[in-house]
Amino acid sequence: MGEAAVELLYGVPLLPLQASGAAEAAGCGALLAELKQLWGEIGKSREERERTVRELELECMRVYRRKVDEATTERALLHQSLAAGEAEIAALTAALGADSSPQLKVNTH
């Protein structure tokens, strides 16, 4: 069970992983507290709460996966563009008859 589930079900506060995420963690914490209170008021069972938290965690994972996939695609496009630019430089250098031995080395990681 994830940190969000622990906080929702057992009242253990979430600790922000990074200082920059403190505002987001506080916002999520407030929403989790509100959800917990609402669940208490409407009588949601422990099983229903756990199921809902699992659904929230899965949805969150899907969002993160989509963002990772988008960033991976963007990186691949940038590498492709860089390779095309390097090829163009090599072609221009060759056309000018210049020595192409000193080449640019680009970190691909």
TrEMBL record:
InterPro entries reported in the protein's UniProt record: MAP65_Ase1_PRC1
Keyword Cytoplasm: no
GO biological process: microtubule cytoskeleton organization
Keywords of this entry: Microtubule
Organism domain of life: Eukaryota
CC per GO annotation: cytoplasm; microtubule; spindle
Pfam family, one: MAP65_ASE1
One MF term in the entry's GO annotations: microtubule binding
Family to which the UniProt record says this protein belongs: Belongs to the MAP65/ASE1 family.
Full protein name: Uncharacterized protein
